[in-house]
Amino acid sequence: MKKSIVLFILPFHIFFASFAQAPLAGSYVSKAEKLIASISKDSLPVFQFSFNDTMRMKWERLPGQRMGFKLSHFTETQKIAFHELMRACLSTQGYLTVTAVMFNEDIQQKFEPALGRNEYWVEIFGNPSVNNFWSWKLEGHHLSLNFTFKGNQMLSNSPFLVSTNPANSITDTARAGLIILYKEEEMGRQLVNSLTTDQLKKGYNSRKKTAIVYSEQDKDKIHVPDEGIYYNELNKEQQILVRELVAEYFNNFNPGEMPGVNNFCNKKLRFFYVDSREKGKPHYYRLENGAQIIEYENYDNHIHCFWRTDNDFAKKEAVNNK
Question: pLDDT by residue (tens digit) across 218-241?
Answer without folding.
Answer: 999 999 999 999 999 999 999 999
